[in-house]
Amino acid sequence: MLQALVCSAPVQPQRPTFSLAGAGSVLIGSTAACIVVGTLIGWAIGKTGYGLAFGAVVGIPVGVATTVIKYRNI
C-alpha cells in the first residue's frame, strides 16, 4: 500500500465579493420603500403628491445609508 504525504498551503477563507448588482438593488429597494411609505402617508392625509415627493426626498439618503451600512466592510 502506497501512501503519500501532500503538504499544501493553508486555504484562506474566501471573502465575500462586492456585487454591484446587489448594491444597486439595496439602493433601489430602500429608496422605493420610502417612496411607497411616503405616498401612503400622503394618501392618508389627502396629499398624495406631497407624500410621494417627501418619500423621494427622504428615500434617497436612506437608500445610500442602507447601502453603505450593508457593504461597509467589503
How would you portray this structure in words?
It is a single chain. The chain has 74 residues and is an all-alpha fold. It has a domain at 32-70. Helix content is 66%, strand content 0%. The chain contains two helices and no strands. The chain has helices at 20-45, 48-70. Helix 1 runs antiparallel to helix 2. The mean pLDDT is 88.
Brief descriptors of the model:
mainly alpha; 66% helix; 74 residues
Order of helices and strands: HH
Tell me about the biggest sheet?
none
For the termini, the CA-CA separation is 48 Å
% residues in beta strands: under 5%
- How many strand segments? 0
Helix content: 55-70%
Summed up, the helix count is 2
**Rg on CA atoms, Å:** 23 Å
Structural class: mainly alpha
Quaternary structure classification: single chain
Global outline = rod-shaped
Uncertain residue ranges: none
Mean pLDDT reading = 88
Short description:
This protein has 74 residues and is mainly α. It has helices at residues 20-45, 48-70.
Summarize the helices and strands and which ones pair or pack.
Layout: H1 20-45, H2 48-70
